[in-house]
Amino acid sequence: MHYSPKHFVIILFSFLLGTLWLHAQEEVILDTIPDENYREDQFYIGITYNILQNRPSEVSQNNFSSGIHLGFIRDFPINENRNKAIGIGIGYSYNSYFHNLKATETDNGIVYEVINGDENFSRNKYRTHEVELPIEFRWRTSTATDYKFWRIYAGFKLGYMFSGISKFIGDSGKLKFQNDDFDSFRYGLTLSAGYNTWNFHLYYGLNALFKDGTSTNTGERFEMSAIKVGLMFYIL
User: Fold this and answer.
1) Whole-prediction pTM value?
2) What number does CATH give the domain 38-235?
């Protein structure tokens, strides 16, 4: 049986979540009585580099495709020592994707074509704005008085894209329009891990950016999805 990279990522996340969940059920005895009111409610801000996978042939990324993510997560401890919790939040995400797949709005719909090597262009990108709902299983080494600690937050993120724009600036002119081919419903796996302020962050999109059946002008269907890699900062 053939397994794609997406299958391996899903298996890895499932194993990690299962391991952390089982560990959360173990009884841990401490010398001190935990603070019954301690929780890690947090504002977060993240910066990522965005990667498009499953690109059509001859399509490549260029410039720096960035993402900015911010929001608030409510912490719900699930063990006596309150260092394991479920986090549920609300947030906003801005993402840009620079590449050479030009989108042109026509009377018959949107046409996607790889930019000819002879055409000079200064910018060709997709830009999205999303409302997000992160859900995390959270493990940390913190206490009510220790604010520098190790953490592993693994989870799932739902999103709704309320704006998706295609933009092109080149020799043939300027194009900018609201692209209705984007799939508004977003979902993917997340992982944040690190110490104190600095935390590695990964988002692995499980569905395509575009609606089913979207294809290039040559008839090649594409199901590009996003991987976002960067840093996440948590603020109490």
Assistant:
1) 0.83
2) 2.40.160.20
